[in-house]
Amino acid sequence: IVPLLLCCAANVRAQAPDRGSLTSATIRSALEQGRAFLDAGNLERARIHIEAALARVPGSAEANFLRGVVCERQKDYAAAAASYAKATELAPRMAEAHDRLGFVLGQQGQTASAIRKFEEAVRLNPRLFDAQYHLGATRWWIKDFEGALPALQAAVRLRPDHAEARYYLGLTLERHRRLEPAIDQLREAVRLNPRLAAAQLRLGTALQAFGDLDGAITHLEAAVRLDPTAADAQNSLGLALSQKGRGDDAVTVLRRL
User: What percentage of the chain reaches a pLDDT higher than 70?
Assistant: First the structure.
């Protein structure tokens, strides 16, 4: 998933703010330092500054949103959901908060609620890549391929360099029986990220179905190298080698299972 926060200065040195003497300027400073510590990966330090700001301005949508980001990165998804929900209550048009709330709801198995939040984020900001990508990928997982397609197409338009978005679009096009454009998307996914084993595997099997055994073997071998324990990749590779007339090689691969 694409990181939501923008990069800030990595090396920020600051003491925790004194909650009793916070002014508007120091509240803003606390939030800025909280962001900086988030970007530096110092979650505990980030939380100190964000919580200090929230103690004085609990009605700050930005502060609630940032606390949600900290909790999400700490994998405290219930706390993150509460903070993001508060942010959406305070700032109903904050598309990023709806998207992140959808993501943490999804992590807790609340798929229908997650999709509603992604849809709201897309309605508020159709150019928000994360929301389009999350909506499309989640719809794919629940086998709503009709709904997944426009969201993933939008995601790829917004971020043509995003390998996972290309991968999910390729999978969705396959489900629509559009094999050639699916192969194009999967090729681009592995070009962007050759270490994406799932894309190597899916491209290999798509090329195998298309009759390009040489191409299939190349990508299936890559999938097996990336994940030697993947039985589906080894099975597909063994079948492709057998179809190519390389029976001995096929037996060698299949014996590894």
Answer: 91
